[in-house]
Amino acid sequence: KIWGTNANDVTTVIIHLTTLQGEITTAQGAINNALNILPETTATEITTKLTTLIDLRDNHGAGGTPAEQVA
């Protein structure tokens, strides 16, 4: 026994940690990509940009709701 557990348990933990490491690496890559797109950007600036993008998506930049845009 290793650390009071059997070798299969240790192997299982290693597999899970390796998977987690890969997921963390992927997440870090996504974070780095976002930071490269928005260098030195504050949370407030990101919120403003996100709000603008959502408006463009939903209302074609017209502001307000789609019903207001049609009106």
Automatic annotation (TrEMBL):
It comes from Acaulospora morrowiae. This is 3581_t:CDS:1. It comes from the Eukaryota.
